[in-house]
Amino acid sequence: MLGPVILAASRSDKMRRFVSAAPGTKQVVDRFIAGETVDQVIPIVKDAAAKGLEVTLDVVGEDITTVEQSHAARDAYLQLIGRLEELGLGTRAEMSVKLSMFGQALEGGHELALANVRPVVEAAAAIGTTVTLDAEDHTTLDSMFAIHEELRKDFPQTGCVIQAYLFRTEDDARRLAAAGSRVRIVKGAYKEPASVAYQDKAEIDKAFVRTIKILMAGEGYPMIGSHDPRLIAITQELARQAGRKLDEYEFQMLYGIRSEEHVRLAAEGHRMRVYTAYGTDWYGYFMRRLAEKPANLLFFARSILTK
Ligand code: FAD
């Protein structure tokens, strides 16, 4: 019940100001956000590498309102890629981007987002890594998939995300499961209406399994983004049935969530990539993490009240 309320709050400026200023917020934010600057996130990339983990780095931010902010987003990723190159970490880290941070919702936003993300994808390719386009709310997806298709003409390794809760996703999975593609499947983290998305957890899980089957049967590279132990076990079985080797798909989990499982799966020989978010504009990302698990909200409320 609380999830939809928190997701609605994740788009309220008033709540943003309240949550950001509340004493005790930082302590909870730090569990999910790896730092504010590139220099704070680099040791985390190194630590992950030492544990046999890969990362995908997300400079937090979304729903920007000016062209200047969209350029700043592009530049933040270019700075990150520059640091990874200097440190020889290019092959350990890929990037995840949200097109709404690159100007997608502004006037002429489709072209603006494409123009901003292209140099990031180009710079990533130059250091031997790649970029995945995150999936945001359903109204943004046609544009995201069109940008993905455009980028793939020059950078075929560019990835994208599909969300099991959307009715459209199995069709998207069929279209995307072609040779050379990289597709992350997740449950979906936004507040979506019943006209476009399953609302029931069990229905979402079933759709997730159907989508894994499509991806595993296809010729692309499936990336399973979930912390759900049941879905992880099912993925392992479906991969085995599809005759896929351990390096022909990967698991992905979020920084700060089920960290012991990251290490356990990597130790079993799986490729495990940790989605590591950093930066100062953490509000939307943080609120979605609270919405996913009510216990997080209780912890958050307690830490505010005891400060
Ligand atoms: P759940 O059933 O929600 O969780 C299973 C178990 O994992 C829970 O019981 C709990 O133990 C643990 N857990 C899950 N979430 C939390 C949490 N926040 N705090 C503490 N414990 C938790 N969504 C999008 O819409 N677009 C994206 O581009 C996107 N990218 C993602 C990338 C990665 C690598 C991952 C892992 C998720 C991404 N998501 C994205 C979020 C996703 O849609 C889900 O909201 C989120 O992963 C929770 O679903 P779950 O599969 O982990 O299952």
Automatic annotation (TrEMBL):
It is an enzyme of class 1 (oxidoreductase). The keyword Nucleotide-binding applies. Coiled coil: none annotated. Keywords: FAD, Flavoprotein, Nucleotide-binding, Oxidoreductase, Proline metabolism. Residues 46-299 form the Proline dehydrogenase domain. It catalyses: L-proline + a quinone = (S)-1-pyrroline-5-carboxylate + a quinol + H(+). Its EC number is 1.5.5.2. SUPFAM superfamilies: FAD-linked oxidoreductase (SSF51730). This is proline dehydrogenase.
